[in-house]
Specification:
- The protein is 29% helix and 20% strand.
- The protein is of the alpha+beta class.
- The relative contact order is 0.12.
Length: 137
């Protein structure tokens, strides 16, 4: 574990005595998740979610297909015991259960299409034309 990196992140956190969460008090992205600079061999490579960085520093590399989920449901939390590895499907189930997943009129499909993979087998146009036929279970 990179103790210096871990300590520099923890210095920007505050303990919430009521919940036990260690809350990030630094920069956040548009969705409210904390972000920290990521570097490889001393070169900056972009921003990483702070909870993902904490997990990585404590437990090692994370498979690219896996997420670091907040068991406490607090997106500012960096407490390692409140974090767990999970799949996109598990995270979606959490969001649906907690009422934080956009559904129905609140769903902005266009927001997701901006991130549409160039090599996707389903063209954007098909998604847009079939939007009204999509039913969330």
């Amino acid at each position: 574990m990179n103790n210096r990196r871990f300590e520099s992140i923890i210095k920007k956190c505050v303990k919430d005595e009521n919940s036990g969460c260690i809350l990030w008090n630094g920069a956040v992205d548009k969705d409210g998740y904390g972000r920290v600079q990521n570097s490889v061999n001393g070169r900056l490579t972009g921003l990483t979610p702070v909870h993902r960085m904490i997990w990585k520093l404590q437990n090692g590399e994370i498979e690219k297909t896996m997420l670091v989920r907040h068991k406490c449901r607090n997106k500012h939390c960096c407490e390692i015991t409140h974090l767990e590895i999970g799949t996109v499907m598990e995270n979606s189930e959490d969001r649906r259960r907690d009422g934080t997943m956009p559904m129905g009129e609140n769903t902005d499909v266009l927001q997701y299409l901006k991130l549409w993979p160039k090599k996707s087998k389903i063209p954007k146009e098909m998604v847009l034309s079939n939007r009204e036929q999509i039913v969330l279970v």
